[in-house]
Amino acid sequence: VAPPIEISCVDVEYTTWHRLRLTEAELLANKPLTTLAHLCNQCKELSKSTQQLQLKYLNIDELLEQLRLQLGNALEPTLHHMSTAIDFFCQLYFLLKRIIDVLQNMWSQITAYISVTVEVNELQLFTVFDAMIELIEQLVVFNELTEHSNISTQWAFYRKWLQSLAKSKEAACNSFELNGLQTSLEDIETVITGQIFRIFLDSLLESKKHLQLKDASVNSLTQHGNAYIRKLLNNIEWQDYKHYEQPKQLLQLTAFICMLYKLGVQLEGKLLKQALETLSKYQRLPLSLQVHWTPHAFIHQHAKTLVKPQDKSPEPSKQQLVLLDKLNQSDMKTCRQLGTQLTLWCISMQRALATGVFGQLKSFARLLLQGQSYVAHINSLIAGLIRRHVALAQPLGNDNLWLICKLLQFLQQMQQTFAMNQMHCTRYLNSLLQWQKQKIQQLLLQTKRNMSDLKQMQRKLQILTMLKLTERAIRGQANGEHLGTVKLALSEFLGKERPLSADKQKLFKSLATRTDNLCRLQQPMQTQLDATALIYFYATLGCNAATLKTHVKQQRSAFLLHNFMAACNKLDKNLSVFQCAVAPAGAALSSQRIYETQREFLSTHLEFLLRMEALSHLFLEQEHPFQTQTKDYRNCIKLAPIERAGEYYILRNDLENYFTATFYNLTTIAPHDWKSYERMRHLANKLLQLRPVDDYLPNQIIDQGIDVLQIMRNIHTFVSSFAYNMNLQLFVEIQSSNKHLDIVGARHVANSVQTHGTGIINTTVNFIYQFLRQKFYTFSTFLHDEHIKSRLLKEFRYHAEHKHDSSYQSYPYERAESFIKKIRKLGVARSGETYMDLFRKVVTQIGNAVGYVRLLQAGSKNANFRSRSYMSRSNNSFERAEDNNLDELTESAIKAYEKSIGHLKECYSDRTNYFKLLLQGFQPFFCNPHNNHLRTFYLIAPALIINYIENRVKDKLQMHKKTQAKCVLFEDGFAIGLIYILNMLKQLNEFHELNWSQTTTQRLEAQRLKLQEFVASNDQKSSPSKAAADSEEKLLQTMAITERHVNAYEQEYNLLYATLSSAEIFFQ
Q1: CA distances from 717 to 742, 749, 771 (A)
Q2: Are 595 and 565 in contact (CB under 8 A)?
Q3: Does residue 1025 sit in helix, strand or coil?
Q4: Distance of alpha carbon 475 from its chain centroid, rounded?
Q5: Is 1048 contained in some domain?
Q6: How far is the C-alpha of 531 from the C-alpha of 154, rounded, in Å?
Q7: Residue 284 lies inside a defined structural domain of this protein
Q8: CA distance 954 to 1048
Q9: Residue 823 to residues 775, 788, 792, 999: CA-CA distances in angstroms?
Q10: Is the confidence at residue 977, as pLDDT, over 90?
């Protein structure tokens, strides 16, 4: 047997301990024990290193997969990234080889210890098995991860790629280096391709040949191996379905059976059958998100004679899905209980630290250990919840995600509690450890006194030696290595037929476990509270935007999502530590993606909230404050800054910048509503504690009026709902549900120009041009109709035949009136309007649009006059300023000033005639020979005028009635539209040839003459009878009404002709 490894400690007593002359019993008792303790400590350290390398391997594998998906068939960049990870693969190979060497050494020490020791303590051997099987578990996990990884599938291409590079002339390596690389790649390939566990079993088989075990040693090893398997089975049956959440014990049992099978240790038939039946219940145990492990298949791969090949793994049964729902409900119940327990624990911690710890060390130690158990419980709940759904291939629902957020909130709460009391905990922890060690030393002293009852001297000497070793180990600094030695030494005199009673043994175990847990508190609490297990299933936490929106909308507190984002940020930092290759472009981290999703949703949702609050006075049904639950979004905004690659993302600042830009843009687009946005800015400060920056835009005055941009966007509504007055140059609203009518004048246009700038005039004229195109399409379609076109051609022939006659001085009124009656026979619209009424409205809307262009021109001149007040009265030129060597800022200001002056002259000069532009834009189209149906438009003008006059008289007569919804005092848009169309069609002279004004004058004079003749004849026939007097009075009233109508018609005709004459001036 090789000489045992000795412990070398800093303590003086430890350094001189191995130099003492010890008897053979002391040597046999101490050296194997210290060797096994040292190997157990190595197993723990190697297990931690293996877990870190597992995370790094998973991250490299994921990065390579993302790169392959982005590049598609391009394989060479992926292979280049694999070359950057060769250093990591070498570290991985050396670590796994070191694990195999340590496990071989442990088996050598175990077999030597069994062959030398007269009576082997089962508890002591179980402690060694626990440390060894924990390391073998990580070896199995690594074996499965590498076997099912993307790196293993790309490894063959990588080898061929390196061989092709070695043969090329561009290779900068000699043959010796290439041979060394080839040898190293062969060694690494055994690790990458998932063969490491097979290599470990083969190494055990080779070491078995050199052990030379005796029959007694084999029987003892068989006995203890079967006992340990029985112990693992008891733990598995006790937890049952919990192994889907944490398959640790199943991994350990499966690996231990394969290891004993390879060593040739005979297993009990019933025990083996029970173990295989138990393992066969579990299928697709999740080791990571993509890797699933089945115990039956693993045993069939490494111990074929023990099991038969299994069929295809069954799908999750309904019973398992029902069990999944029950476990989820149980976790929710446990989460609620944990919330209450953690609250009480935090209060107790604060109270204990406030009153002083030295007077209540026992309760303080209990609180620390209780907090540590809460942390372990929460971590197991989080990992178990995710593994459970991955194992059964079920997606995580919203309730599960909120549960994870709540559990992460608990971890953050405990981390905050430990961080706030870090100085106190560090100060009192050493006192607690000394107190626990003192209790162990008192028990050891009592055990020495009870040794006089032992009759066997050899047995007594062995136990005393163990006690002496335990005392020396407990004196030094309490750490994991020393406590491992103490644990092995204590197991020598714990158990059946030992000198201690059952109560003392239980107290020994309790003190050792408590001391070990307190030692773990000396490690950084950040590593225990960061939920590192989530890294294995990081992709499952990628919740979509809808889930986050639902959370923010339903939850009053953002602490859950805050802690979820904090945990993701912590995991991103951990993954960035493990990265050895450059991440592909576009690979966004989960914490940043979740942050951007929440920021986007909160921006739009809070904007809607502020808008509703600003307009709450318009709602008829007010919410009852004691019945409606309001949502406080301030906690969502108070999110801690997230750091990524040295940059901090602050949600509050991003929301303030968003609202600043939004209020500025909205105020610029709709300055008339600037008070609403100012109120929203005020509510953002009061309700959400945000401080958007003021826009400092020129606010509108009281008589600002409707904005030009708003009219431009709704020009089709504006020209149909507003009436134009040419003399006053203003538009008045025809009908409104409010108590007042809106008015748009030249001053209002000037205000809009001053607010938005000079560029809106040309843009508005372009919009009006597009609108006129649509209206002229309707205009042309109406005149192209067969009924209209035929009647107009008839009128055209009549006018052509009679216009040269001496008796034909003007177009007859009767023909225009007959034309209206014929059009009325074609039908009416649903509103009761004839086609002539609708056509008149089209002409009126065209005239309103042209009148609005005139109003824009007048408003622009008004704005130009206002802007001139800021100019110098003397027409100075700044061209000479370039020779004076002025400052750059001064020169740039001068250039900007001259540019603004030039723009004013260009936009607002009198040479810019928009009427001519509108005429020139449409004349080529309407004067086209293909549009012959438009050449008779001037003949429909008399009928349009009659229709217009009748409508105006009717409106004015009904103006004073309460039931009248519309009220129109003027409608000059018809006159402007008629003259504009006649000028565009070049039919104004033809219209004047009709002498329609003379026709209407003669018509009105004839009606008035007829009334006078009727009155004169009535005076001659008057009689003194009462009946005749009554009839005469009614007749006079009728004649008075008729005369009033004639006067009204005459007044409207005179106003129309005056307006037509004025409108002709615009287009000269």
Answers
A1: 14, 18, 11
A2: yes
A3: coil
A4: 56
A5: yes
A6: 32
A7: no
A8: 10
A9: 21, 8, 11, 21
A10: yes
Note whether 847 and 982 are within 8 A (CB). Answer: no
Task: Provide the residue range defining the domain that includes 32.
Answer: 12-212
CA-CA distance, 185 to 166, in Å (whole number)? 14
Give the integer Cα–Cα distance in Å for 604 and 1061: 55
The overall longest dimension of the chain from CA atoms, in Å, is 167
Rounded to the nearest 5 degrees, what angle is found at the Cα of 813, between the Cα atoms of 812 and 815?
A: 70
Residue 754 has pLDDT above 70, yes or no: yes
Domain assignment present for residue 981? The answer is: yes
Mapped onto helix, strand or coil, the DSSP state of residue 61 is: helix
- What pLDDT is attached to residue 735? 83
pLDDT of res. 841? 92
Assess whether 666 and 723 both reside in one domain. Answer: no
**Closest to 695 (Cα-Cα) out of 680, 713, 706, 709:** 680
Nearest residue to 253 (alpha-carbon basis) of 214, 291, 310, 303 = 303
DSSP string, 690-734: --PPP-------TT--S-HHHHHHTHHHHHHHEEEETTTTEEEES
The domain total for the chain is: 4
* pTM of this structure: 0.52
Residue tagged 């295989």 (tokens): 276
Amino acid of residue 284: R
Indicate the angle between helix axes 122-147 and 24-71, nearest 10 degrees. Answer: 20
Q: Which residues of 473-505 are buried (b: 16+ CB within 10 A; e: fewer)?
A: bbebebebbbbbbbbbbbbbbbeeebbbeeebb
Residue written as token pair 């309490």: 478
The three-class DSSP label of residue 759 is coil
User: Which residues are CB-contacts of 864 (< 8 A; sequence separation ≥ 6)?
Assistant: 904, 908
Q: What is the DSSP letter of 118?
A: S
The phi and psi torsions of 119 (rounded to 5 degrees) equal: -125, 110
Considering the domain architecture, whether residues 712 and 661 belong to the same structural domain is answered as no
Q: Distances from the Cα of 892 to the Cαs of 517, 685, 889, in angstroms?
A: 73, 38, 5
Q: Kindly state whether residues 491 and 404 are assigned to the same domain.
A: yes
d(CA 661, CA 658): 5
**Distance of alpha carbon 171 from the chain centroid:** 48
Q: Which long-range contacts (CB under 8 A, 24 or more apart) does 174-179 make?
A: none
Gap between the Cα atoms of 798 and 737, Å rounded? 49
CA distance 236 to 985: 98
- Looking at the fold, whether 781 and 666 belong to one and the same domain comes out as no
Instruction: Answer yes or no: are the C-beta atoms of 614 and 683 closer than 8 Å.
Output: yes
Cα–Cα dist 576/689, whole Å: 35
- Interacting residues of 560 by C-beta distance below 8 A, sequence separation 6+: 402, 405, 406, 408, 409, 551
Specify whether 726 is located in the same domain as 599.
Answer: no
d(CA 241, CA 280): 13
Q: CA separation (Å) from 24 to 117, 491, 584, 937?
A: 12, 21, 64, 132
How open is the CA angle 82-84-90, to the nearest 5 degrees? 85
Q: Are residues 646 and 523 in the same domain?
A: no
Give, to the nearest 10 degrees, the angle between helix 196-211 and helix 248-263.
Answer: 40
Structure tokens at 73: 């068939």
Of the listed ranges 245-259, 349-363, 739-753, 1031-1045, the one predicted with least confidence: 349-363
Q: What would you report as the CA-atom Rg of the chain, rounded to the nearest whole angstrom?
A: 49
Alpha helices per DSSP H over 870-987: 888-908, 914-926, 941-957, 973-984
Residue 230, in any domain of the structure: no
Residues 656 and 800 reside in one and the same domain:
no
728 within 8 A of 851, measured Cβ to Cβ: no
Q: How far is CA 908 from CA 554, 864, 878, 905, in A?
A: 56, 7, 22, 6
Q: What is the pLDDT of residues 267-315, one digit of tens each?
A: 888 888 888 888 887 777 777 767 777 888 888 888 878 877 665 555 5
Dist. CA 61–CA 150, nearest whole Å: 6
